[in-house]
Amino acid sequence: AASEKKLLEVKLGELPSWILMRDFTPSGIAGAFQRGYYRYYNKYVNVKKGSIAGLSMVLAAYVFLNYCRSYKELKHERLRKYH
Amino acid sequence: MNENLFTSFITPMILGLPLVTLIVLFPSLLFPTSNRLVSNRFVTLQQWMLQLVSKQMMSIHNSKGQTWTLMLMSLILFIGSTNLLGLLPHSFTPTTQLSMNLGMAIPLWAGAVITGFRNKTKASLAHFLPQGTPTPLIPMLVIIETISLFIQPMALAVRLTANITAGHLLIHLIGGATLALMSISTTTALITFTILILLTILEFAVAMIQAYVFTLLVSLYLHDNT
């Protein structure tokens, strides 16, 4: 059965049923965000000799997301003959 | 060029939903808490910095004023972090919006003034008349002091907005000038680039100084009134 398997162990044919089995309630989604946050935090920040990389990866992702958000206005500023 | 100079200041929405809420909440992710005595480097650094700032800022207050420590420390952290995050490319700075700065300044100032009026009414009213004024000048001076009192929250908000917005605009303009000058004359472009570097250093300083000034002034208003 495709229940309770991690994503990398799910076969392609079982993928739709696996996705539908996930918990999409608000508390489920909140739990997913919480787990993701702690996964990152415990891997890169909450270690004995944490480096600047833990913070800069977050800031780089922030810059990238803001770029995606403002792409619509930014594409008019490219150096092109026809916009 | 005029329109896209100001597009970085419009409230970010995505499909009609306010994205600005997420952007305002984002700095809270960068300040993790820890209950341990010896935590990781990130948390230790932040705790050390916070202790330094709170000692420096709250030592002038009496015990009644020191109940505001949490509020003022959150304030300086929030303004400092949002200003510094706004220096990253393409990001949105919430403190450029006058609405938000007014929302921070007016309640804090009003809280300090009303605390003063409730607990030390005579002393608060006495603030309206400096010591040793000649008698004929008294009515005028009371009016002037009232105006200067009511302008405090406006000045707090507008100071922060204007400083941060002006800095961002200057960076945009000089950056655009550097790009445009590169094809015309490389030396001038290099000079403009140096100006841009210096400006960015200034903006880092301004980001933190503005946070400090805002909090310091609120704490001064508090000191007057406790």
Task: Describe this structure as you would to a colleague.
- The complex is a heterodimer of chains A (83) and B (226).
- Chain A is built from four helices and no strands.
- The mean pLDDT of chain A is 85.
- In chain B, helix 5 runs antiparallel to helix 7, helix 5 runs parallel beside helix 8 and helix 7 packs antiparallel against helix 8.
- Chain B is globular and about 70 Å long.
- In chain B, 20% of the residues are buried.
- Chain B has one domain.
- With 226 residues, chain B is mainly α.
- Chains A and B meet through helix 2 and helix 3 of A and loops of B.
- Chain B: It is found in: Mitochondrion inner membrane.
Which secondary structure elements does this structure contain, and how are they paired or packed?
The complex is a heterodimer of chains A (83) and B (226).
Chain A (H helix, E strand, L loop, with lengths): L14 H7 L4 H20 L7 H17 L1 H4 L9
Chain B lengths: L1 H5 L6 E2 L2 E2 L1 H6 L15 H18 L10 H17 L12 H22 L1 H6 L11 H45 L3 H40 L1
Antiparallel strand pairs in B: 1-2
Helix pairs in contact in B: 4-8, 5-7, 5-8, 7-8
Mean pLDDT of chain B: 86
Which overall shape of chain A is indicated by the principal axes computed on the Cα atoms?
A: flat
Count of discrete alpha- or pi-helical segments spanning 4 or more residues of chain A: 4
Q: How many strand units of chain A?
A: 0
Residue stretches of chain A low in confidence (pLDDT < 50, at least 5 long) are none
Helix content of chain B: over 70%
Quaternary structure: heterodimer
Q: Please report which band the strand proportion of chain A falls in: under 5%, 5-15%, 15-25%, 25-35%, 35-45% or over 45%.
A: under 5%
Series of secondary-structure elements of chain A, N-terminal to C-terminal: HHHH
Largest sheet of chain B: 2 strands, antiparallel
- Which structural class best describes the helix and strand composition of chain B? mainly alpha
Ranges of chain B with pLDDT <50 over ≥5 residues? Answer: none
Distance between the termini of chain A: 53 Å
Strand count of chain B: 2
Total number of domains of chain B: 1
C-alpha Rg of chain A (nearest Å):
19 Å
